[in-house]
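Suppose a colleague, Dr. K., hands you the sequence of a protein chain of 142 amino acids and asks what its three-dimensional shape might be. Before reaching for any lab equipment, you can write down a predicted structure in token form. Begin with the sequence itself:
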Amino acid sequence: MKDFIGKPGRTVILELQRGEKLLESVREYMAQRGIKNAILSSAVGSLMRLIVHKPTGIDAAAVDEFETIEDAMEVCSLTGSVIGGEPHFHIVASGVKGLYAGHVEPDTEVLYLLELTFTEVTGLELERKRTPENVKKIFAVT
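The predicted structure, expressed as tokens, is then:
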């Protein structure tokens, strides 16, 4: 176990519009505002394209399966963080054809709107790095 202790900074409410890409928009906004680390505390809205990946086994090395869903979906749960300017979100979304869940990938696209509330975390210099097991973990920037 490891921990990183920071302090709450700004609270940001970001409203993404139809056709905007989730991860790309958040990454760009955070860079413009100089926010390196944040916690996603709330998310409501809808998607028209969801791209996720999920693990396929329990071996030490991660092997993922990717899925693309193009349908009207309501975001039921979206949780995650921004570390070193990079968003890392997990989702559960409901569409007419079923429930979808996983790690959100680039090119996920907003249907009508997506409201995201972030709390900035200050006092930390962090980054995510891929381990030899193909898992992205948080490390202090040295």
